[in-house]
Amino acid sequence: MNEIIKLNHVSKKFNNELVLKDINAILHKGEILGFLGPSGAGKTTTIKIITGQLHQTSGEACIFGIDSKNIDETIYEQIGIVTDMSGVYERLTVYDNLRYFSKIHGVDKKEINILLERVGLLEHKNKLASKLSKGQTQRLVLSRAILHKPKVLFLDEPTSGLDPSTALKIHQLLLELKSEGMAIFLTTHNMEEATKLCDHVALLNDGEIVEFGTPHQLCLKYNTEKKYHVLLDDKKEYVIHQTREDLSQLNEWLLENRIETLHSCEPTLETVFLKVTGRGLE
Amino acid sequence: MKSIHLRKLLAVMEVKGKTLLDKTYIIMPLFSIGFALLMRFMSSVYMESGKMSPSTLANCVIMNICMCSIFCVAGSLAEEKEKHTLRVLMTSSVNGMEFYFGSVLPVLMESIVVNTLLPFITGLSMTVMQWGCYLLLTTLSSLIGTIVGMLIGIYSKDQMNASMITTPFMLVLLLLPMLNGIHPILDTISSLTFTGVIMDFANQISINAHPFQINSIIILIVEIIIATVLFLVLYKKNGFEAND
Hints:
Chain A is an alpha/beta fold.
């Protein structure tokens, strides 16, 4: 079955306040779907609904074709979850933390060292989990979530607050997992991360999907004011607009071989989000 | 009814067993053992007979049940909530039954072992019949203690909160059998609690009366049923996280 997650007109109310409004989305096998939006947009609530930790007020949320309201341990055996609320057993070592979950999932112990090597924690395997840095803890949580090779991985702001080097390692690992066929449901407010990783993104604002598509599609859709950034050989920079005058100037520079660099200035996901919602992401 | 997978149950039991070895929890059974040793030493020095009374053994057992069964179970559940590992377990295919039995069984075993050691430590000799009754009553009481511990754990937000609820609760349970002579109402209340039942058992031994009293067993079974029903009602509401 290719369709891993399907959200069909999902809404959620907390004390009469509508926090999710008519959410529709599909995640297929081997895809990364990003839910992007600022804090409080409803990203974590969506994950909680899909994983059966919360029940939606209306609509249907299915995982592996089963209504998430009826989720049980047979479904949990096929999913991995990483959120900022995913704790580790601080009194146990890194290795013992994974050993505990390998027993729960019935995974061969040999897999633990392979996984620790993959996430760069092998040299810290005998360290107490309480002694790990934030980045190392996040990698431990991630390795625990993928220990049993789940069919779908839920990541709630996986690189939030991490240094760029650790974030990069996590990005590489996620792309590897995706290429192995794992479906990944990612929430983030980091648009750069979403552009790099996601096959499809849903821009979420005040509990509502305001745009849905591939990052490339969305950027092109809002590329209404076409312009180009030019760096000349005298190190002067110019922004060329799609006007007859500007284009003839560009043509002139090209003929004179004066252009060092030339870039189209289509909007980033961040500017698309700002355009659609009129608000920032933090 | 959820099924229990032995593999997951044993995994939870192993980690919970390790938790009991942590300094926060290992000290709990040592309190009652230390208290028993101290009382034995004091009896040998200050008592003419040099022997301890059965009521002292009862106090040690009550202390053990409160410290081990109630405090350790409540504290360890509250710790799982505080450190956000409980939610991880529940979304890692461990069901409520597996977590419940995995959490309770190591503590129950520890409590039973200490209860069994206490008569030897205090030097109190009992007949086979008395031993049988003693083990039955203390095991049932320890079971009640663990369920009460789970109830407190469900209500507690964190370890500090759990200890704030547990301490006065334990004090009442510990003091009731000691103060039951003050007023008949206190005596009645005490006789309806598992701590009172254990003290009554000790009193029966001290006057060489028959130790097996059907009333005591009925009281303990009713308490187990009430505690289990309360637990199930709370658990049904929001799993192990009633305060979320």
